[in-house]
User: What shape does this take?
Amino acid sequence: MPDKKKSRVAAPSKKNGHSTAVVAVLERNGYRPSEKEPFMNERQRDYFRAKLIEWKEDILKEAKETLVHLQAENENHPDFADRASSETDRAIELRARDRQRKLIAKIDAALARIDDGTYGYCEETGEPISLRRLDARPIATLSIEAQERHERRERVYRDD
Assistant: This one.
């Protein structure tokens, strides 16, 4: 008898090297990765793959909505103050979309790491990244300790 808490989520069709199908047990359906199970087992990989794909789809949906909004907002404002305000809003929106474009690249890199078996391991030390950190920041590439060292070095060498 199938478990009603499990849910199958299909990934986008194979494009740009992404997997063709993802079977995931999502948190909202009762599954949450646990320290009690083997690290980065198939179930955990499926969970994080689904989480990353859902995040990417949300960003792409927002980007489409922004495009529609910007096209609709493409009116000629007769008042200079209205025009300036509209241009400022547009610039802020475009900067936000640029940040999200960079985030999508990080999500794609995380999906590639899941596929090649390196996801969940610190790029600096090779040690497992905590599940709590990955759940909060699924694109993390460094453990908390390595990230803190990186940020300390960044502060020391930062140009003020």
Observations:
- The longest strand covers residues 7-9.
- The radius of gyration is 20 Å.
